[in-house]
Amino acid sequence: MLGLDDVVPDVAARLAELTEMGRIETDSQARHVIYREMSELMVDNCGEMTVLQVRDSVAHRTNIGNIVPAAHAFTPEFRYMTKK
């Protein structure tokens, strides 16, 4: 992750773990704690970095489904999102 696998593998592993945790966490306060740790690890270990954009969907509510990320990875395709 972020090219850290060969340089600091323990940090890369923790970032991968936090990424998975953040993807499934629906509680906004818990997600905030996860992303804060991710940000601190990236700032401490990545040197200069750009704003990261990922193609992965992130859960924000428990009653939203059919999230389809756009090809350019900046915004989800909102017209297909449904409320359960």
From TrEMBL:
User: What is the protein name stated in its UniProt record?
Assistant: Uncharacterized protein
Q: Which species is listed as the source? A: Geodia barretti
